[in-house]
Each structure stands twice: as structure tokens, then as C-alpha cells.
Design a protein that fits this description.
Rossmann fold, alpha/beta
């Protein structure tokens, strides 16, 4: 199975360093242009299905990327991480290293624990492995589920701090996934 992960295009909150969590915000014009550029890069790719977080910014990203050429399937398991009290607050208030430490598994201030994010993404990935074999799947999601899915696909050991790199808006990576692994 071939999986292509995409993070949604830029929003005003992203641009202004504001945590948006599960708030339903729209992409801005820069985000739409990012998606149009990515669409040109993916133009020759064939996708059998597109799984999408049900939030507006990811649905809009998917619409720009594949339009009505591919069945879009919303899935709650790839929603952005719940940010609790930090939702709508400046990014500086969020300590990514603390909240992405698998062993600490912090949930203070109402932030969804990292083990919960990884668990729901693992459930989603296992579902795909059981349902599909040779299909090409596009997944349009957010930074936290993108990171969790990438860690799971790569088989990274789940311990300590799991921040491995920045995932920019409209980031895109493709993986060959062994259904047996």
C-alpha cells in the first residue's frame, strides 16, 4: 500500500504563531497557493482514496488537491490534537518537547496526551492495513497526526521525545507501507 501524507495549507493562525488545535479555521490565500503548487507536483499521482480530517482547513486542502476525482472519507482519528487551554494562545506558551515526550505523556492544561494521539493514529493505520493492500491512499491531516503517522510508518521506537523535525504547512511525504508490518 502506498500512503501519501499531507499537512493542510497555511492559516492565519499558523502565520501568526497561534495554536489552533481543533478550532475550525479556514486556510488563508497563501495556504491556498501552497495547495495549488502541491497539486501540480501530485498531478501525475493516482490516488484510490483520500482520508481527511473533518476540519475545514483539511477538507479545503483535499478539495484543492484532488477535487472530485477521488472519494474523500472523513475520519475523526486524524483530527488535530486537542490543545485545551492553549487553543487560540500564542505558540510560545506550548512546550512541544514537553508535550511530545512519550514517557512524560503530559496532559496538563487540557492538552491531549501524546500517547492518545499516537494510539488513535495507530488504530487508523491498522484499519488501512486491514482494508487495503495495493491501493494508493492520500491522507490530509494536521501536524500532530502527520507526525504520529510518520513515526508509526517508519517504525520509530516510541520512547522519550518524539519531535524529529518540523512539519510545515502543505508538507507532503509518500511511504510504501507493508501491510504485514
Amino acid at each position: 500500500m502506498r500512503i501519501t501524507l499531507v499537512r493542510h495549507g497555511l492559516t492565519d493562525d499558523n502565520q501568526n504563531g497561534i495554536m489552533q488545535g481543533r478550532r475550525n479555521v479556514l486556510m488563508n490565500d497563501t495556504g491556498r497557493r501552497q495547495c495549488q503548487m502541491l497539486r501540480m507536483k501530485l498531478d501525475k499521482e493516482h490516488f484510490d482514496y483520500c482520508y481527511v480530517s473533518p476540519l475545514t482547513r483539511t477538507v479545503e486542502t483535499a478539495m484543492i488537491l484532488v477535487g472530485d476525482k477521488v472519494e474523500m472519507i472523513p475520519d475523526q482519528r486524524i483530527l488535530e490534537r486537542e490543545m485545551g487551554e492553549l487553543d487560540g494562545k500564542p505558540r510560545e506558551m506550548y512546550n512541544a518537547y514537553k508535550y511530545w515526550d512519550y514517557d512524560l505523556n503530559k496532559s496538563d492544561r487540557g492538552v491531549e496526551p501524546v500517547q492518545s494521539v499516537i494510539s488513535r493514529c495507530e488504530d487508523f493505520l491498522n484499519y488501512l492495513k486491514e482494508k487495503y493492500t495495493d491501493e494508493s491512499i492520500l491522507i490530509v491531516t494536521h501536524q500532530a497526526p502527520y507526525r504520529a503517522l510518520r513515526l508509526l510508518i517508519k517504525g520509530k521506537e516510541l520512547k522519550g521525545n518524539l519531535i524529529d523535525s518540523m512539519i510545515n504547512n502543505c508538507s507532503c511525504e509518500t511511504f510504501e507501507v507493508d501491510n504485514n508490518g
